[in-house]
Amino acid sequence: MYSCPDCGALQPYRKFNSPAGKAECSTCQEDLVPSRFVVACAHGHLDDFPYWKWVHRGTAHAGGGLCGGELRFRADGSTASLRAVLVSCSCGAKEVSMEGAFRRQALKNLGVRCSGRRPWIKGAPAEFCEEPPRTLQRGSSSVWFPVVHSALSIPPWSEGLTKVVAPIYDKLKGESPGDIRAYLRIEKTLDHHPEYTPDEVVALVEKLRSEDAERADEPVVESSARETIYREEYLSLQTDHSEREEAGSQDFVCEPPAASNSALQEQYGLDQVMLVKRLREVRALQTFTRVEEPSSADDVRRRAPLSAAKLDWLPAIEVSGEGVFLRLDDNRLKEWEQQPGPLARAQRIRESTRPCCASGPATRRSRFLSPRSPLGSSCCTRSPMS
Length: 386
Description:
Mean pLDDT: 85
Order of helices and strands: EEEEEHEEEHEEHHHHHEHEEHHH
Largest sheet: 4 strands, antiparallel
Low-confidence stretches: 360-368, 376-386
Structural class: alpha+beta
């Protein structure tokens, strides 16, 4: 639904008869404003707010049927609350505010059920859905909670020949050594990397291909794959990867401070401090949820698809930056987690999350064996490395 800020007309976009390539009211030539309110359910469906039913509730048309009137939308500016957002109909129905539209039972009382629509997927049919819809503001965070996975570029993938081959590996992994050399020659891949030879590229592709074959025989478990990535990142952040002369080819530079900081480490209970001078992170959007934040305990139906058909790629961005890596002293941490305060806090968290974790896997139920886990996670989020 869209509205015109001048005449106040509230209707679907197609009824405004906007000129090609524009979104404007054909009567007022004013730019149209998308509806401020939508309805969504916890299974990811999204639809327009039922303004017509909201205006005509309690009237002769409440049970259904058209009144022949046209909806109008305006904000009188008297207050910042929903009481100042008004909807009316030219049929004579009383003008009403949006106050009360966000109550949990508001849509149920109107007889509104989830439409099962997925308007972000072109041509997607509506799905049957029994989840109760909720009224949301179009720009609120509850409309869209992204489920993002990230990974750091760490050695060996962040440097050397592996960094050169990684972007084209999918094209080369099924080719013969002769075809790989031909590709490198035609695409002039090594012209900007004279330090490497075609034979070295062939050897690396064969090595990576062999590792892929070994992994193909192992069952793929999403959580274990992520934990493997986190563990490798954690180990890399503890290891000295100093900046070299050819620093331009390094995506990952991590080294200890030049000066000793043993006094600070002792004071704050730190076991290691590393300066991350260069870092590249890739963040990929896998799916998203609506109404409530995503949780590892979610039903699969809560995860909305990005497309009608499953894709072999995900939208992603690269983020470059720097930072400091701090590792806590494990002995100090063990002493702390035996104190009465941390133990009581961990017990309270266990009690409050028991309904969530009771049906989850044993690995998730066992995360609160000590008070240190609540430092960076809940039962339904990624557990910190200890």
